Input
Amino acid sequence: MLLQFDIMEKKVNIQKVVRQHLEMEQFFTGFSLKSKAETHEQHDKEDSMAVAEKAVELEKIAEEVNQCRKCDLGSLRTNAVPGEGHPHARIMFIGEAPGADEDAQGRPFVGRAGQLLDRVIEACGLKRSDVFIGNILKCRPPENRDPRAEEIISCLPYLQRQIEIIEPQVIVALGAHAARTLLNTTKSIGELRGQFHEYYAGIGRPSIKLMATYHTAYLLRNYSQENRRRVWEDMKKVLAELGLPTPE
Ligand code: SF4
Output
C-alpha cells in the first residue's frame, strides 16, 4: 500500500515536473500548454468577439446613413439602404444604388435583380447571410438615374468604412458604376470584367482583390446564355481565389 502510494506520489511528481518544464518552455518560447481543444475554443471565442465588434461598428455606420443628408438624395428617399450581411464576410457584393424595392424596404438587392443575385450566390454554394451586400450610394436616385459625381463623393466614405471593418478577401463589383468607382477608372465593364483587379484599401492596408462583373439588373435585361456564362465564369474565378469548390 505504501509502495503504491509512493508510486502515485512519484507519478504526481513526474506530472508536476513535466508541467513545470513546459511552463518554463512556454515562458521562454511562447509555446502554449493549452490543449488543442482549449486553443480552438479560445480562437472561436476570439473570432466571435471580433465578429460581434464588427457588427457593432457596422450598426453605427448604418445609423449614420439612416440620418444622413449629405447630398440631395437624402431628402428624396423613403429609406436609406446601408447594406447588410455577415460582418466578417469573405465576399462583398457592391452594386450601384438602391432601386424602388430597396428604397421601400431599406434593404439592398431585394427586387428582381436582388432575387437573381440570390440565385448567383446560391449557385456558388453560399447563402445570402454568408456575404455582405451593399451599394456605392445608400439612397435611391430618382427614376434610377445614374449616380452623380457629387453624390458618390459624399457617400463613398460609408462604403469605404464598411470595407475596412468587414475586411473581405474579395469584392465583387456589380456593374460599371461600382467597378469604375472602386477602381477609380473610366474603363467599360466589358474591359474590366473577367479578371481580378486590386482595390486600394488605404495607407498601411493590404489591397483587396476585386472582380468586376455584370450587374444582375443588366443581366435581367440581357438574359442571354452568353451573358449568364460570363457572370458564372467570373464567379468561378472568385470561388477559386477563395479556395472554395465550384458546384457543378
Ligand atoms: S446618398 Fe449617401 S451621402 Fe447622400 S444622403 Fe444618402 S447616405 Fe447621405
Remarks:
- Residues 65, 68-71, 73-74, 80, 137-139, 151, 154-155 surround iron/sulfur cluster (CB under 6 Å).
